[in-house]
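I am writing to request your help with a piece of structural work I have in hand. Thank you for your consideration; the sequence and its tokens are set out here:
=====
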Amino acid sequence: MANEAAPCPCDIGDKMDYGGRGNEVQIEHINAYLTKPSVKTDKAVIVIQDIFGWRLPNTRYMTDMLAQNGYMAICPDFFVGKDPWNPTNDCLTFQEWLKDKQPTEINKEADVVLKYLKEQCNVTRIAVIGFCWGGVATHHLILHYPELKAGVSVYGIIRDSEYRYNLNSPTLFIFGENDAIIPLDQVTTLQKKLEESCSVDFNVKIFPGQTHGFVHRKREEINPKDKPYIEEARTDLLNWLKKYV
């Protein structure tokens, strides 16, 4: 997600060569990538894409990682068939591209996915995790869907709502110290306001030296100095889900 000072969106980073172990499914008017765990479960995690869309191999890798840890994991196309951002696009067109893809206007799709998980997958405990654009969407859903048991917003934050600190469920926020898209003053404000008014558990964690996208868009095997932080963040998000879902 771009901010006012930097209209160009984030870099795609290290695109993985990864096919995935799940399947694409049709759920009413949207498509989704679904990966089932090896054993039956009543727990599910909705994974929300970044600006590069639901088919980005990196996001499918994270979805599969969640399934390998025992969750029904689903990554819906919250762009509903519209083209994701292409890194070759002119940055000056980003705001126009974003107009019909607002991360706070996904309730219709969220309702469809929740219904599918409950009625078709027999899931009773559901969490949400999102990256970048999806981190903002995660923040939004946690504010509006009390039925969600937990949320993990990875470098995503709602900036323009006076109600953005009224979390309904335990939420972990993950940020990089050197994120050019989300300045640290916005992160410290989030921490302060949550401490003042939030009634559920939360954690705002900043990873030293890390940039936007480090959790899922950096490949640890070719970024050795970042590897400990990538692995720690992934462990943190898994532990958060294990604690609350």
In short: Residues 37 and 68 are 6 Å apart (CA to CA). Helices lie at 57-68, 94-98, 107-119, 133-144, 184-197, 214-217, 227-244. The beta strands are 23-27, 30-35, 43-48, 72-76, 125-131, 150-154, 171-176, 202-207.
